[in-house]
Amino acid sequence: RAGIGQYHLMVGYPTCTYFSGDGEAIDVMSQILERRALNTLRDGNTTFDKGTYRVRVFTERTAWYGILAARMATVSGEYAEQSRQVIVTEARRLCSESVSSSECDEIVAMLKEEVLSSFRSSPSSLADMVIHATCNGDLDLQHMHNQLYRLNRVTPRRIREVAQKYFSKGHCYALIKPA
Q1: DSSP three-state, residue 12
Q2: Helix, strand, coil abundance in the chain, percent, nearest 5
Q3: Would you call 141 helix, strand, or coil by DSSP?
């Protein structure tokens, strides 16, 4: 559309499916990547009208596929490439360096709170969780209900193992340029 000056970038890594034992470690990795990308690409940028913004990293798992994806917007192709390189570099770093126990514990606690708050105070989020679970074959909801247990098992060592498994295969990306 004429007048739009943003570049939109998405970088993705294929991951595991819904019932995989790697899912919660991948969820933690996505939050680590988002924090690191925000620190480098957004908070580290001090020049107005330059750099990358709207950095978001998320995971999606179904019975058929899984993906960890980072999406962001930026003002130029140069910053889009810089953003892609930051995501790839940070993903490689998760393969080669252990995250600190405190960083891991903090993100696990945050993800556990998100799950618990769905049960405590967000009927629509809980309904979405139930729909997602049943659509992916979790008809008795056991996998969904065991999510907190699986999050408790995520450690820095586990994050590194899972990162090596999925981030060493390469990535794909899409870039939408202004008209």
Answers
A1: strand
A2: 55, 20, 30
A3: coil
Burial classification of residue 16, based on how many CB atoms lie within 10 Å of its CB (0-12 exposed, 13-18 middle, 19 or more buried) = buried
- Specify the pLDDT at position 3: 66
| Alpha-carbon gap, residue 44 to 52, rounded angstroms | 10
- How far is Cα 136 from Cα 73, in angstroms, rounded to an integer? 31
CB atoms within 10 A of CB 25: 27
**Do residues 70 and 34 touch, judged by C-beta distance below 8 A?**
yes
Q: Which of 165, 136, 177, 138 is nearest to 26 (CA)?
A: 165
Let me know: does 17 contact 62? Beta carbons within 8 Å: yes
User: What is each CA distance from 147 to 17, 18, 33, 54, 151, in whole angstroms?
Assistant: 14, 11, 21, 28, 6
pLDDT at 47: 67
